[in-house]
Amino acid sequence: MILSLCRAVSIAALVAALGAAMPARAQAPTVDTRIGSIPLKFGLPADAATVGRLYDEMDFQRASQAYLWALPIVGFAGWQDAQRSVFGARDIDMVVYESVKDKLGILTANATTPYIVGMPDLSRTGPLVIDYPAGATAGGVGDFWQRPVTDMGETGPDKGKGGKYLIVGPGQTEPKDKNYRIVRSPTVNIFFAFRVLDPDPGKAKDLISRVRIYPYAERATPSQTRILRPEGRAWTQVPPKGITFWERLNDILQREPVMERDRFYMAMLKPLGIEKGKAFNPDAQQRKLLEEGAKVGELMAQSLAFDNRDPNARYRADARWEYLFTFDPGQDIGSYAPLDERTGYFYQAVTTSRGMVTKTPGVGQAYLGTAHEKDGAWLDGSKTYKLHVPANAPAKLFWSLTVYDTETRAFLDNTPDGIVDRSSRADLKKNADGSVDLIMSPSIPAGMESNWIPTIPGKAWFALFRFYGPTETYFNRSWKLPDIVAD
Question: Boundaries of each DUF1214 domain copy (predicted)?
Answer without folding.
Answer: 365-472
